[in-house]
Structure formats: C-alpha cells, structure tokens
Amino acid sequence: MTVTRFWRPVEIPDDHGDRPAAVRTGRVKLPNHIAWSGQGEYDLDDPRGRAHVYELVMTEGNEDDVRTYIDLEVLLGMWDTMWLAPHVREQWAEHLRSRGLIS
C-alpha cells in the first residue's frame, strides 16, 4: 500500500533573518489564512502564546508572514522545545543550518 502525503509548502523567504521580525512583542491578531481554526489573537509576551504563533506561522504562513512574525533570535531560543510537523522542522532546520545557526 502506498500512502501519499500532501502538505502545504513551507515558505521561508531567502532574505529571512536579515532583519528582525516586524512584530516581536505584544498582542497580535493572525490573519485567517494562518489561524483558520478560529482563535487568532495571541500574546507574544507569553511563552506559550509566542510558541503557538511561531508554530502556526512556520506551518501555515507565507513569506510575508514569516518576515512579519518570525524573528531568528527568538526562534533559536525556542527551537529545541517547539512542536513542528516533521516536514516543517526539516525545512526550517535546513534554513537554520545554511545560516550556521544550528548544527
């Protein structure tokens, strides 16, 4: 039996990390194409809220969303404890390795 998996492409802009994310603190309302399940407002100052925003944006976001919400310094501080689908973690790990940020 062959199982085919269909995932949304993981979007990581080539220039990601060249500048800090536009949003780093406070409350954010994620767009519906990211937080399509209903709850869209999160507190980036709360570690659980921040982790959830990062997980959602890294999985569902487009390149502009990544530039807006994902800060590499913050991401690296959470990387080892974040839950990400394997295909998302693989692609992000490749991006972080290419920048010499993880081994």
Tally of separate helices? 4
Provide the β-strand percentage band: 5-15%
Question: Average pLDDT across residues?
Answer: 90
Helix and strand element order: EEHHHH
**Radius of gyration over all CA atoms, rounded:** 14 Å
**Low-confidence residue ranges:** none
Largest sheet: 2 strands, antiparallel
**What spatial order of strands do you see in the largest sheet?**
1-2
Estimate the helix proportion, in percent: 25-40%
SS class: mainly alpha
Query: How many strand segments?
Result: 2
Shape: globular
Report the span from N to C terminus. Answer: 36 Å
Q: How would you sum up this structure, described in words?
A:
With 103 residues, this protein is mainly α. It contains 4 helices and 2 strands. It has helices spanning 47-60, 63-69, 72-78, 86-98, and strands at 27-29, 41-43. Strands 1-2 form a two-stranded antiparallel ribbon. It is globular and about 35 Å long. The model has no long low-confidence stretch (mean pLDDT 90).
Spell out the key features of this protein.
about 100 residues, mainly alpha, about 40% helix, single chain, two-stranded antiparallel ribbon, 4 helices
